């Protein structure tokens, strides 16, 4: 069998690898590497080196990775070991039996796994500066031989963008008036490139005669219709309607805005023109034919915005949520369920006890990911039973700049394979004083990481 391992000559940069992912502590008995790769697929199966979700390391040089693997300083998942041993040409890595077993090691260590065992809780590193998500055709951890075809990223991997609070009104509206809608998105668009699905949690309807005003507690939120071009520019095709302000101008603007979404082929969830429509899950199809589903709620409905009798947001009720998620799984045959809730707003990086309880309830009911769509500042990230809870992403397109927390935020580049979320990559943002969203610099990103990534929430797997 002819083999091409895409390996460069190894320089054995041992020190770097040990510092990046930690040294192994238990000796692993050496074994001879197999001469052949297990037959798993007619396509190649990429390998990955992963570490803890909150770690700052982003890259692993290939020569260092090979040296550390062969010296037993890198862990390997048992299921991926046969392929990894052949790729690296040795069998000395320490074996971890399950992904769950790696949770408490991930804070300092690295694990080699394969595409079939890649999960969102562990961060996949670039190798030799090449990210699989950005340059799959140049990614080096791929075993090539004459019996397999190259892995087809475009065929199998679905990119889904998840964002925080959008409300194009007040000073965000003034910015769009002064500079055009492109001003609001120009720093963000490169990260949305190639996404099949783009989510916006839009809290404001457009209304005839809409005008913008700086902060006034009595001001009703609205968006000028021409500024909805922002959603088109981002490639929006999923709109969440759990927000508190969509009915500020009444039923007719809500209805007209809802119909505009439909005309633009933007699907909605979490709200609607009737209680039944508001509670109806949204199900979309991923590239590989698997189903991704959304269900959304509003916990408190502080402005009377819920669809209790007519139109509006979907009010949270515990049993309703349980039954809705059960139906998605059992009747609609959804492979991956994302549940969202517009919780009560709080100026805190930590979720409220009620918020945390509801989020975990939604996981217990069967959701695979939960996020809070209410947060005007980012909140802690948690993995509960191996499943992600993003308690709050912060403001995406909203004008608040009056304190540090509301200027900090992030959105997520999510990647799905075979109906499962395999990576949720955060992109950190910082709202400029001119109300233009910007990508956070290193110092700003470090400040956000410090308050939302905590060991007790990231490195567990109950």
Structure class: alpha/beta
- The percentage of residues in β strands lies in 15-25%
Separation, N- and C-terminal Cα atoms: 44 Å
Described by strand count, sense and barrel closure, the largest sheet is: 9 strands, mixed
Shape: globular
**What is the overall number of helices?**
15
Estimated helix fraction: 10-25%
Uncertain ranges: 1-18, 23-39
Q: Rg, please?
A: 23 Å
Please state the average pLDDT score.
91
Topology, number of strands: 26
Descriptive overview:
25% of the residues lie in helices and 24% in strands. The chain has 462 residues and is of the alpha/beta class. The strands form six sheets. Strands 10, 11, 12, 13, 14, 23, 24, 25 and 26 form a nine-stranded mixed beta sheet that branches. The chain has a six-stranded mixed beta sheet with strand order 16-17-19-20-22-21. The longest helix has 13 residues, at 251-263. Mean pLDDT is 91; it is low at 1-18 and 23-39.
């Amino acid at each position: 069998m002819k083999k091409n391992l895409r390996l460069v000559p190894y320089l054995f940069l041992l020190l770097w690898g040990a510092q990046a992912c930690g040294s192994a502590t238990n000796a692993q008995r050496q074994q001879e590497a197999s001469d052949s790769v297990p037959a798993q697929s007619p396509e190649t199966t990429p390998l990955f080196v992963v570490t803890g979700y909150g770690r700052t390391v982003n890259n692993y040089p290939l020569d260092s990775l090979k040296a550390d693997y062969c010296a037993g300083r890198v862990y390997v998942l048992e299921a991926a070991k046969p392929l990894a041993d052949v790729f690296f040409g040795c069998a000395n890595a320490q074996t971890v039996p399950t992904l769950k077993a790696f949770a408490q090691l991930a804070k300092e260590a690295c694990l080699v796994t394969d595409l079939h065992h890649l999960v969102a809780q562990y961060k996949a590193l670039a190798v030799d500066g090449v990210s699989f998500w950005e340059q799959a055709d140049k990614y080096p951890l791929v075993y090539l031989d004459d019996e397999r075809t190259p892995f087809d990223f475009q065929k199998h991997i679905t990119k889904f963008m998840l964002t925080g609070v959008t409300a194009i009104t007040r000073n965000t509206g003034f910015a769009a008036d002064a500079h055009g809608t492109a001003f609001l998105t120009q720093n963000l668009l490169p990260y949305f490139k190639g996404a099949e699905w783009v989510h916006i949690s839009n809290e404001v309807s457009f209304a005839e005669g809409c005008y913008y005003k700086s902060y006034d507690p009595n001001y009703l939120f609205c968006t000028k219709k021409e500024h909805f071009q922002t959603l088109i520019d981002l490639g929006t095709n999923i709109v969440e309607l759990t927000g508190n302000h969509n009915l500020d101008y009444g039923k007719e603007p809500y209805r007209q805005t809802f119909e505009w979404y439909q005309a633009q082929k933007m699907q909605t969830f979490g709200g609607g023109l009737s209680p039944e429509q508001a509670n109806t899950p949204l199900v979309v199809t991923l590239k590989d034919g698997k189903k991704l589903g959304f269900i959304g709620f509003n916990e408190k409905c502080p402005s009377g915005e819920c669809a209790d009798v007519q139109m509006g947001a979907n009010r949270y009720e515990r049993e309703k949520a349980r039954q809705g998620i059960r139906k998605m799984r059992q009747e609609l045959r959804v492979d991956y369920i994302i549940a969202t809730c517009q919780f009560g707003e709080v100026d805190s990086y930590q979720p409220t006890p009620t918020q945390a309880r509801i989020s975990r309830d939604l996981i217990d009911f069967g959701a695979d990911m939960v996020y809070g769509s209410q947060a005007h500042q980012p909140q802690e990230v948690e993995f509960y039973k191996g499943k992600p809870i993003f308690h709050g992403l912060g403001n995406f397109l909203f004008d608040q700049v009056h304190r540090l927390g509301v200027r900090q935020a992030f959105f997520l580049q999510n990647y799905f394979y075979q109906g499962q979320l395999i990576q949720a990559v955060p992109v950190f943002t910082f709202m400029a004083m001119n109300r233009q969203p910007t990508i956070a610099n290193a110092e700003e990103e470090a400040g956000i990481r410090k308050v939302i990534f905590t060991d007790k929430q990231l490195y567990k797997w109950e």
